[in-house]
Amino acid sequence: ATRSVMCDGNDVLLDLITRRLVVGEALGAVPEETPTVPLEADLRARSKTLRLRQQAGAKTLDLDLRRDIDVERSQFLHRLGILEIDWGTPADSEVRSTGTFRETWALQWKPEFSVSVIEASLWGTTVVAAATSCVVSKINEPDISLASLIGLLENSLLANLPAALSAVLESVKTVAALDHDVSHLMAALPTLTRTLRYGDVRGTDVSALVDVADSLLIRICTGLAVAVTGLDDPSAEEFREHLDKVHSAVMVRDDRDASARWLQAMAGVIDRDDVNGLLVGRMVRLLRDSGSITETAAAQRLSRALSVGSTPTAKAGWVDGFLGGGGLVLVHDRALLTLIDTWVRQLREQDFIDTLPLLRRTFGAFEAGERRAIGQAVRGGRRVETTVETDARRGRAAMAVVADILGVGA
After folding, report:
1. How many whole angstroms separate alpha carbon 134 and alpha carbon 83?
2. Domain count, the chain
3. What is the DSSP letter of 62?
4. Helix axes 182-198 and 233-253, enclosed angle (nearest 10)
5. Which residues pair with 60 in a beta bridge?
6. 322/325 Cα distance (integer angstroms)
7. pLDDT digits over 158-172, tens only?
């Protein structure tokens, strides 16, 4: 009746009435002297110190990790997250900033969190002690995976739990030494590298993680040749994701020795015949983009891959591995585009039908502008004409500022 008469059949309005009028958003309170579990008392005290109000309405909290109070707020919310008290959840910031010093949380206190606090009190009497005990308990669970341990390691760093951190590090070293599955090691490395790269924003000492990251990378590079041998198409597709993430993590870390070791490991695999073409194409592309092999060498390898006596589907997998993730290489390198165009035009009808789904997936993932430029180049060999209006006066002013920054004459 309420939906029909008052809301004109609109469920959104009915939900608003239910939430605002029937249920309500006001939170009750109990006197400070009311007996409660020690953990809840500590949570209230810390909330008051950090000026975080327990309110039912949703609120966005932007933290600047260069400020001490915001660092403490971040650590406090991460500790509650470990205890599964999700008062704050990470959110996307509306502030346009690419700095790693910014952190955004969506805050909303729910009545059921009071029960969660009582349940979490079995871990300790304070938020810090309870979060530490919870982490230590999780790392002692049987059959815990390396990726889960790395996640606990990251959470311990974010929550600033030094007592738990040492225990997690020892567990990571033990599990990593016993885990012979390269894919597990590859899944764990990106999270660890991200912590190494950005952990110092909070002033956290991450030097202890360097040895762990180096050890993981050495074992990955050593086992890569065996791990990529004889994979079928679904397994190769899954392994390509690990390749991309590890490569991105190693390049972001910007460590010369680590980068050289990883690139050398991939270079030792790309000439083998027992490796799925999808992975070979991907590794050739990663080596090309990093400058380990020249564009000419990459084009020669693509030409050989499309000319050898493998099936059209296998060749399409090589192309998918090489081009997956972006088509700018075809926009700027017309020799590669000509090679692929020639190969596609020479396919027999049934071969074209068999390879079309894979090629469609590959090219469909490109940006609209990339597809348009490639299409125009294939149709008539014409470059895409782009009209750009320029303002000479504003351009001279910008160049003057750049020259002043660089300390050179305009």
Report:
1. 7
2. 2
3. E
4. 30
5. 106
6. 9
7. 898 888 888 888 888
